[in-house]
Amino acid sequence: MNRSSDKLSRWAGMLCFAGVVAKSVLEAVSGNVIFSSWHLGSLGTPIAACHAGGILGALCLWLFLDLKAKSRTTKSRAIERWSAAVSQTSRSILNDIGAFGN
User: Fold this and answer.
1) CA 64 to each of CA 17, 19, 37, 69, 95: distance values in angstroms, whole numbers, following the listed order
2) Residue 96 in domain
3) What's the number of domains the chain is made of?
4) Nearest alpha-carbon partner for 33 in 57, 58, 54
5) Which entry of 15, 25, 30, 85 is 20 to 30 Å from 46 by CA?
């Protein structure tokens, strides 16, 4: 998951998320769903706390993907260091046995 390097996009995303969180908190506190009259047809009775559950789920997914990306970066750095160490050791051994004709 890549973060946008554009500051405007990042701030717009944070502002939208903050708006959804504020709406969900207001709904959970009041017990009424905001914009419930906009629901088309017979969808049933909206449950105010469900929006807070959606936010919690989104935060858990974001945390999981962020940790997974950091783990992948850490693993690739460890592999690079290990590969360099093995390469250096191999060269050293080959030099010691005279494989390069020195």
Assistant:
1) 18, 23, 35, 9, 46
2) no
3) 1
4) 54
5) 15
pLDDT digits (tens, 9 = 90+) for 33-63: 887 777 666 666 677 788 888 888 888 888 8
- Residue 80 belongs to a domain: no
Q: Is 57 a member of any domain?
A: yes
pTM score above 0.85: no
For residue 17, what are the contacts with CB-CB under 8 A and spacing of at least 6? Answer: none
pLDDT single digits (tens) 10-41: 889 889 989 988 988 888 888 888 877 776 66
- For 64: left if phi > 0, alpha if psi spans -120 to 50, otherwise beta; the answer is alpha
Query: CB neighbours (10 Å) of residue 24?
Result: 21
Structural domain range at position 16: 7-35+46-71
Place of tokens 């088309």: 40
